[in-house]
Amino acid sequence: MAAPGSSPGTSAVRIDGAVVGGYAAKVARAADELETAAGEVGSGATTAEAYGEVAAQLGVPESYAHASQALRGQLTAGVAALRSVAAALEQLTTGHAERDADAAERIERAGRIS
User: Fold this and answer.
1) CA angle at residue 44 from 43 to 49, to 5 degrees?
2) What is the C-alpha to C-alpha distance for residues 46 and 18, in angstroms, rounded to an integer?
3) Which domain of life is it from (predicted)?
4) In the CATH hierarchy, which fold is given to the domain comprising 17-113?
5) Which residues make Cβ contacts (< 8 Å) with residue 79, sequence separation at least 6?
6) Which residues contact 91 (CB under 8 A, 6 or more apart)?
């Protein structure tokens, strides 16, 4: 059933390519920032010197190394998810623009024929 005030067939989702494209760019930038942050997790903080002799004897550097490795893995998975979303949004925008161009061409051609 069509939405109130619309005719049948006009209830399709409307996409603003500029908005979706802008969102894709934001998501891609977020992926870049997260990737940078992931690379910095644990940098230089897994040596005995960072914690002192007692902490080294207690295994704090090793524990921190394991924790930072797990966190880097989670951040890396987040980066992959964000890149996937950005790619999907870019494909959506590109496909929508191509369909609009094709429709405009068909309309123009129909106008020349009639």
Assistant:
1) 160
2) 45
3) Bacteria
4) Helix Hairpins (1.10.287)
5) 31, 34, 35, 38
6) none
Q: Report H helices in 1-114.
A: 17-40, 53-58, 60-113
**Per-residue pLDDT tens digits for 73-90:** 999 999 999 999 999 999
Give me the pLDDT at residue 4, please: 53
The structural domains of the chain, with segments of one domain joined by +, span: 17-113
Task: Confirm if 2 and 11 have CB atoms less than 8 A apart.
Answer: yes
Whether the pLDDT of residue 34 is over 80: the answer is: yes
CB-based contact 81:35 (threshold 8 Å)? no
pLDDT 10s digits, 47-82 = 667 778 888 888 888 888 899 899 999 999 999 999
Beta carbons of 48 and 61 less than 8 angstroms apart: yes
